[in-house]
Design a protein that fits this description.
7 helices; Ser_AcTrfase_N_sf
Length: 142
């Protein structure tokens, strides 16, 4: 039981570090590339985003809905789609039997983002993965 608590604390620390890193990278991008302001303020730097999962949910829902042509009306509003992603993260955390390959959904998404950043020589930041990598968005949706 003590080992499990220690593992949970270590996981929580890693999670917080990734959230902090993503926020820092977003603020640096905002300073260096002001043309990203609108995108960042609707996704990673949105007022209601404080965790990595919230940033991913906001970004993926924004990307899915912004790719919809203006002639078609979307089935979902951005908030509804974001809430669907957040509900999936939350429900999975509360249902331990749904852990797959030793990871819950949040940890798997975090590991995917880190792996993409580490393996793609053209990628320098986690922010790039979350904002621009279609493959990452596809993994989140899966």
């Amino acid at each position: 039981n003590n080992n499990k608590q220690h593992e949970e604390e270590a996981t929580s620390k890693r999670m917080d570090e990734l959230s902090i890193r993503l926020q820092r990278e977003a603020k640096e991008a905002l300073d260096h590339e002001p043309e990203l302001c609108s995108l960042l303020k609707r996704t990673v730097l949105a007022p209601d985003v404080s965790t990595f999962e919230q940033a991913v949910a906001a970004t993926v829902s924004y990307r899915l809905l912004s790719n919809n042509s203006s002639q078609e009306s979307s089935c979902f509003c951005p908030i509804t789609l974001k809430d669907i992603f957040l509900k999936a993260f939350d429900e999975q955390l509360q249902n331990e039997k749904e852990i797959f390959m030793g990871h819950d959904m949040s940890e798997a998404v975090r590991q995917d983002a880190l792996a993409i950043c580490r393996r793609d020589p053209a990628c320098e930041t986690i922010l790039e993965v979350v904002l621009f990598y279609k493959g990452f968005s596809a993994l989140v949706c899966h």
